[in-house]
User: What shape does this take?
Amino acid sequence: MRLLKGYPELTDLVLQASAIAKSFDGNEILRGLSLDVERGELISIIGPSGCGKSTFLRCLNFLEHPDAGTVRIEDVTLSCTGKHWTRANEAQAHRLRAHVGMVFQAFNLFPHRTVIDNVMMAPMQVKGISRDEAQATACTLLEKVGLSGVKNRYPDSLSGGQKQRAAIARALAMKPSVMLYDEPTSALDPELSEEVLSVMRDLDDDGMTQLVVTHDMRFARAASDRVLYVEGGEIVESGDPDLMFANPKEGRTRRFLRTLL
Amino acid sequence: MNKFFACLVVLALTLAPSVHAVAADEQTAAPLVVPGAKDSTDLPWASDGEANVPYVFHDPEHESRMTGFEYDLVNAIAEKMHRKGRFIQNDWDGLIPGLSRDLYSMVVDGIEMTPEHKAAVLFSRPYYVTSERIILRKDETGLDTMEALKGHKIGTIKDTTAERMLRRQGGSTIRSYEEETNAFSDLRNGRLDAILLDAPIAMYYGSISDDMKLVGEPIGSMEYGIAFAPGSRALRDQVDAALGELIKDGTLHKILARWNLWTPLMENYTGDHTHPDIAPVEWDRYRAAMASTTGNNWKVLVHRYVGFLPLIGQAALMTLAVSALAMVLAVALGLLLALARHYGGAVLRLTAGFYVEIVRGTPLLIQVLFIFYGLPAFGIRLSPFMAGVLSLGLNYAAYEAENYRAGLLSVPRGQMEAAIALNMTHWQALRLVVVPQAFRTVVPVMTNDFISLLKDSSLVSVITLTELSQTYVRLSSTYYDYFGTGLMVGAAYLLLGLPFVRLARMAERRMGRSMGGNVGHH
Assistant: This one.
């Protein structure tokens, strides 16, 4: 299902999610969301609190187990049928996560390891990459996010912006095809947010596919290729950021955007 | 964390063999391996040699050597049988259970041949006949017959003929003691008016100090026999034959006379009415040794305490070895239990929860006795050392499990999520991310637990391990010196605990630094 007109026919869909549904204690949080993502797209997902946008993101790498729906990333597909989360599901989710990186609002850096160890840990432990190689990659990535100077420090001694950039480097070290950001700047002051957002813009220029759940409308409008407006567990509207912000088609989108002004 | 574990393990491993070596050298060593009673030249026998004068006890002149009239007697019997007596120390309450466990083949400890005892074990013919005596403080008068004891506070040993005689007569307040030395202390400080006890004990304890005296005539009569497991009829018959020869050739007479224990009762029992000229050398030697050790001359005291040092050192090593190995077990098993309770499926969670509740809800002493004496019923026979390590380790695992569970709960959920998002498996996430962080909050509690374990290890003295507390009881009751010995043993416990407190502080500091100094930030 294509949502956007004007794109060339069937290019390279790196991620396809269809009919993702999820309830918590009988409350329907996601009502069958579907989304196709082109390789290299930067998509912002906006919407009121509790609309299900974070849950949707967490369903894409199965940190939340959807009750129903299918996710395909690269060549790995996993369908949920509402039954128990099985060992086979977990194994498939493990394969799928190899292509996805995730960045959290609370950073979730490992406080007992230095910054560079945070970046090196997963490549060495999960992929079995040699220490030398992992270190070289980590240095390059930390340089890219501007943290070369603090790579031997422990996370607790960094500023929030530095922490989030370290978290991005840590996710990138696994060489993902898709990066998921769950409100990456909500815990940061505006000037610190800018450090993080500029890293994300750089990644966009490099062709990284990125999905960002955000409350930062300026970033959503200026940096995104596409914006999704989610409310009540479904995608209400989706499209070019300038068009949507200037002239939302749906009443609900308009109301939401108006409350932000 | 790994380094801390490694330290413990290395410590335990380096200590364990040396302790085995030390204990094996010591004549009084508890059976570290279940003895191979198959060796036909070996005659393993047991007694409670803690403050058990003049039966079997530690020679005050040379603390690591055993002596006593029963000790001499068993050696004479063994010699007649062309075998070699091998003494095994056991707690009084464990003596008979040890027989059925096949830890040794006979028990010699002034066991009275009462009908109840005869129903439980197989007895040799009597090797000693004696009666009860009354002991008073020097300043007391009267109270020299059974009748006169009515209306007074009388001390005795529990489960003895003396105790039964007092109960049958009635009218006195009876205090029953486990250790005779405690009864004598209480008589001395006025908590008791008199003591009624077997004549040998009365003589040896009551007449070596100036402030007590034996009064009245010997009362009643009873017989001591050697106890065997009910199935050991053949061995019993051999021992009876040997005992018969010792009576006939005057060896028993000679042994008892040396201990000043040959009495008219024994004359009647053996039919030996001769009066050979045998000096009571052992009796004199004991009195001389006690005279020189019970004095309060500081030179004597210093000399005595210096003599205690090697014994306390060995005991401290044993305490440390048992505690350290038990802690290693507790840490490993506790972690597994905590993970099972925190992350396991329903069955694992329930099983682990059940284990923790059972172990925390029952006394450690019961667990120690159950593992040592109870498990052999299922064919699991453990050496006292192994049983001690196992019971302490299994017990503390339950407490460690709760400690670790709290530690795991203190790690934010986001840490696990971040690790999973980085495509780690659950196990990798636990091992690399969650457990190391949990460990940090857990270290202070663990240190406290280890110190408690060090102290609780005193409970394994009930299964014949010669560790610090048992050594304290033994030394203090031999010399009536609870104060100085207590200070020394207390200091030994403190010294053992100190390095672990420091080790834990170091580990805490190291981890604290790695967290940017913000311990407890999350």
In short: Chain B touches chain A through 26 residues (CB under 8 Å).
